[in-house]
Amino acid sequence: MQTNKNKKVSKNMKIILAVVSVIIIGALVFGINYYITYLNYKKDVAAIQVQNVDLNTVEDGEYFGDCNVDLIRVQVVVVVKDHVITDLELVEHYNDRGGAANALPAKILAEQRIDVDAVSGATSSSKVIQEAVYNALTGERTIRKD
């Protein structure tokens, strides 16, 4: 005959096992989802084809562009006057370790072209910034995100 104390222990063990199981399943789902996001991010960054824009074809104005590859998000505002980029602002640069790429707009301004050398250690962020600038000046994207 089982005592009440044994029944309580058995019931508590079932609750603990259920909670641990839910935590393990949740961690697995999160891990698999993150891994899939990471693979998609790598594929999207690899698909970016950094291109120049003929500034002689760009009218004066303020242009907004963006690029989102899940783990890196960029929004830029590009100001063009007399076919020269006069200002380039990073409105948003969400990144993990690519903060060094924040120096890229100054390089683009100085060289007046998009295909400047990427910032060492922040190549993916550099490419995403360049894609956002290209998008701003052309209204086109070299990658498609659904």
Please give the structural blueprint.
Layout lengths: L3 H44 L13 E8 L4 E9 L2 E11 L9 H8 L11 H16 L8
Antiparallel strand pairs: 1-2, 2-3
Largest sheet: 3 strands, antiparallel
Query: What sort of overall outline do the alpha carbons produce when their principal axes are compared?
Result: rod-shaped
Element string (H = helix, E = strand): HEEEHH
**Helical segment count:** 3
Strand content: 15-25%
Mean pLDDT: 90
Helical content stands at 40-55%
- Radius of gyration, rounded? 24 Å
- How many β-strand runs? 3
Helix-strand makeup class: alpha+beta
Strand order of the largest sheet: 1-2-3
CATH class of the domain at 48-138: Alpha Beta
CATH topology of the domain at 48-138: Sufe protein. Chain: A
User: What low-confidence regions span 5 or more consecutive residues with pLDDT below 50?
Assistant: none
| Level-2 CATH architecture of the domain at 48-138 | Alpha-Beta Complex
What's the N-to-C terminus distance? 63 Å
Task: Write structural notes for this entry.
The protein is built from three helices and three strands, in the order αβββαα. Helices cover 47% and strands 19% of the residues.
